[in-house]
Each structure stands twice: as C-alpha cells, then as structure tokens.
Write a structure and sequence with these properties.
Elements lengths: L6 H5 L2 H9 L11 H11 L4 H14 L6 H6 L2 H6 L4 H16 L4 H4 L4 H9 L6 H11 L11 H12 L6 H8 L6 H13 L1
C-alpha cells in the first residue's frame, strides 16, 4: 500500500510550504544493511561531516567493506583505533555488534515495535543515545513521524525558520511541529535541506 503523500499536510504550514517550494527534502538512501547504518551513526557522533566520512572510509577498509557484527568483533581494536575511532567508539560499535547478534534489530525484527519501543531497545546499547536511535528510525526503519529535537541542525533550522534564528525551547519546537503529524520525518528532512543550503 502506498504511503499517503505528506505534502498536503505539510503545506498547511505556510513557513514549511515555502521551504517545500524551494528545496528537495534531505535524501533517504535505501538501506541494505541495518547494522552498517547503525555503525555509521555511531562513527558520525560528534564529528564534522568531512571527518566522519574519512574515518568511516578507513574503518570500512579494515572490515574489507563488509560491515557485519562478526567482521566488527573479529577486527583488531588497535586497527580500528588507528582508523580514527576513539577507544570509546570502538566499544560502542562492538556493543552494537553484540546487540545485533543477540536480538533482531533489523527492519523485520522491529516492524511491530512503536517508535518509543525502538528507542528503548536501541538506547539499552551503551553508546547509542536518543539521537542515534532517532536517526535509525528515520533512515533505516523509514518511520514517517519522527521529530529528532536532539539534532542540532533540526533545532537551528526550526529557530531560523520560525524565530529569526533566536533560541527556542524544545517545548515550543514541539508545538510548532504538532501540525506536521503524522509526517514529521519528512518535515525534518525539509528542515535539514533548508539548514544545509
């Protein structure tokens, strides 16, 4: 069954309608390997886009391009450190690998879980916080109604669009986003596109 078109709902917000007219939403790439995407989110934590891309490339080289729980757990910790992962991030990707081996955290395995259940399940893994869990919901599970206010670019984007760049409390951001339901993920992708432009 086709997903309902989010545009008519989002266009009811005149600010967002103007963004839709001038931007394409931030892309959602197809995800073949859920575990790899989770590792990418861990690598990306607190790094600039360029640094994260460089580290990711070196880590994937060490894993011979095959990012699985087994390849991560078989890899030398020293080699992963030399690729640019901090000791803590090596722990985090190993924690994620063990969790994926023990539980089905793929799209299929989480299909019946609510967004809140997915966040609870993922944040049990040391090294995965709410931001990473939200990225997993949007990019891997393709959930339509996620508002990741832990993401700095989303907050700054909302502030630029709705408050002339001045700071807003998250409670107000949630109110601004309320009319976007049940398409807050798509709205988020438009806000990213606008913020990155």
């Amino acid at each position: 069954m086709a997903e309902p078109d989010p545009e008519p709902v989002l266009r009811e917000d005149p600010v967002l309608a103007a963004v839709i007219d001038r931007r394409d939403p931030h892309p959602l790439e197809p995800v073949e390997n859920e575990f790899e995407r989770l590792c990418v989110s861990i690598i990306n934590q607190q790094l600039s886009t360029a640094s994260a891309a460089a580290v990711r490339e070196r880590v994937f080289d060490i894993l011979d391009g095959v990012v699985t729980p087994k390849s991560v757990l078989d890899a030398s910790r020293d080699a992963l450190r030399e690729a640019g992962l901090s000791r803590t991030k090596v722990d985090y990707v190993e924690n994620a690998a063990r969790a994926f081996r023990e539980r089905d955290l793929t799209r299929g395995g989480l299909a019946e879980h609510t967004n809140e259940d997915v966040i609870a399940e993922l944040t049990e893994i040391t090294g995965i916080g709410e931001w990473t869990a939200n990225m997993y919901l949007i990019f891997v599970l393709k959930r339509p109604d996620v508002l990741p206010l832990g993401d700095l670019a989303v907050r700054r984007g909302i502030e630029q669009l709705y408050n002339d760049g001045d700071e807003l409390p998250r409670s107000e951001m949630r109110e601004i986003a309320e009319p976007w339901r049940p398409h807050r993920s798509t709205a988020t992708r438009y806000i990213w596109a606008e913020y990155e432009a």
